[in-house]
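User: Design a sequence. Structure:
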């Protein structure tokens, strides 16, 4: 159980200067990815608590974000019906996959070869990156 003491309070708000943040994910190496309702991706270095990258990678809301287990790849799922794959090392988009419905959730397999997408059209799509 959680107690009602000072440990139950937020340590510090992290500002992104974006519209509503609706998805977040921590990487293994101390990065925080934040996806906003306007398609902006903010990358925060948790050691310094500063924004290290900010880009508009989707046309609509970023509903879900996840990192690969090694922290090298970031997946974002959006209402614009795309999942974007972002390379953390080069700080660039690798590719984007189109879906028939709004992408509401995304997750990566532990081996990094597969990712799965839950869509608003009642489908779940399994993708093979062929690693």
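Assistant: Done.
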């Amino acid at each position: 159980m959680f107690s009602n003491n000072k440990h139950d309070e937020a340590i510090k708000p992290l500002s992104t200067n974006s519209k509503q943040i609706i998805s977040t994910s921590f990487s293994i190496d101390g990065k925080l990815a934040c996806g906003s309702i306007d398609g902006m991706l903010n990358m925060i270095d948790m050691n310094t608590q500063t924004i290290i990258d900010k880009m508009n990678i989707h046309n609509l809301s970023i509903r879900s974000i996840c990192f690969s287990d090694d922290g090298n790849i970031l997946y974002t799922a959006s209402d614009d019906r795309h999942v974007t794959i972002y390379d953390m090392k080069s700080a660039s988009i690798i590719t984007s996959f189109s879906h028939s419905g709004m992408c509401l959730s995304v997750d990566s397999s532990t081996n990094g070869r597969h990712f799965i997408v839950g869509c608003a059209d009642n489908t779940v799509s399994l993708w093979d990156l062929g690693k």
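The chain has a mean pLDDT of 89. The CA atoms of residues 13 and 65 lie 20 Å apart.
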